[in-house]
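Worked problem 6 (solution included).
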Amino acid sequence: MIINLYNNYSSEIKFNFEKIIQDIENGFESDKEASLILVDIDEITRINKEYRNKDYATDVISFEEDDEEDENYLGDIFLSVDKAISQSIEYGHSVEREFAFLVIHGLLHLHGYDHMNEEEEKIMFKKQEEILERLNYRR
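Solution. The predicted structure is:
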């Protein structure tokens, strides 16, 4: 997996997000490429409203690439660092684990996984947990 990182987050990130991305690149079984854009809560809210018509902050949004010329490029993942931090506190695990979860969640969406119904959710969430466990990002 190749992840192109674009850090558009305006504040200092106080955990080693680059190591997490490297771990995922090395451990996510795919020969594809994607971009990861780190943003703040205001930007993810704007994107969510503009593209999904939902006026609130979310944690991660994936946009599949629709250019058929580059079949190796999957698309873009926008990840709210603010939400990763707040959700790690809410769920009682490390911010590293939450960040890894969100990156993997976004990548799985780009690989065609979804959670629009119970069966899809079961499959996707099982795959997420398998990857997180293998990469040693446990709760």
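Discussion: The chain has five helices and four strands.
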